[in-house]
């Protein structure tokens, strides 16, 4: 990972680079920040820069042996620790048991959350732990000499997942690592960390990405159009992980007039069979997409209302406007407030991790009723 691959964060990057140049490197550092920000990628870029054999002015060379190893996260003097789960019949799981999977996921997206990691391992609704065997394994590794490089890095992703035994075992190491060993911790939950650990580290606070950084990353790296990048950026709220998931997933599909039209037709026909298969489809889309779908639905309903009020000219070449013109008669002052409120509520429930099938099914039943609410005749 190069510094230049990470959007924004220029001030932190400069501080990290200058600490290396001046040889003032704290032996234990804590990269701290909200989910989906640059903390892990910065820690990796920093470790790579430390070990790069031909450092450039403000980045690693990306060409030397060390850089090539770092690009795959396989450098022999890089030890990575992260929360793991008791799965696959492994009795005392440690990071090494899952390192290939972790590398693969992080190389695809260094902004992921611990939940994404557990999901990737096929387990949802379970919390990973850094177990005490991890401390023993690391201590053993650190008694050996460095393989190739001047600096040995211990990267601990989500140290707040260490249980107390692990944390206490690692305290001494964090306070006084062996010569040439640097501990880089990457955390998003400061309050869960032992105060004794915090007091022994230098803290590097990382801000969320700003909208411009997210938007230009999406356009440049993911080839997303201006318009879509804008929608995704609003929804991602500075969380790059969310932004990436929104473009990897079916943002095109969930925010399309076809998807909304299909839903409304099923509701209007009160077709429970079709609704049940549509509910299954909806449940598979992932929470971010589900939210976007409801937000998009709200936008279309609002356009219908505007059309009714102002009766403005719509372009018939535009799919969305064509639909709005046809659908507007079903939206009126009697049902629109209710529809908006229910869409809002559905979005909140998705955020609260409620069951998406129940949310979608119930909302659809309400829509079936609301679409039949006729406009009161003016006297
Ligand atoms: Zn290099």
Describe the SSE topology.
Blueprint: H1 10-21, E1 28-33, H2 39-51, H3 65-71, E2 78-81, H4 99-108, H5 114-120, H6 132-143, E3 152-157, H7 164-175, E4 181-187, H8 195-198, E5 202-206, H9 211-222, H10 226-236, H11 240-248, H12 251-254, H13 257-269, H14 272-283, H15 287-310, H16 319-327, H17 336-351, H18 356-370
Parallel strand pairs: 1-4, 1-5, 2-3, 3-4
Helix pairs in contact: 1-2, 2-3, 6-7, 9-10, 10-11, 13-18, 14-18, 15-16, 15-17, 17-18
What is the gist of this entry?
With 379 residues, the protein is α/β, with parallel strands linked by helices. Helix content is 53%, strand content 7%. The mean pLDDT is 89.
Please provide a written account of the structure.
The protein is built from 18 helices and five strands. The protein has a five-stranded parallel β-sheet, sandwiched between helices. The protein is elongated and about 80 Å long. α7 (164-175) links the parallel β3 and β4 (181-187). The chain has 379 residues and is α/β, with parallel strands linked by helices. Bound molecules: zinc ion. Zinc ion (ZN) is lined by residues 52-54, 60-61, 63-64, 66-67.
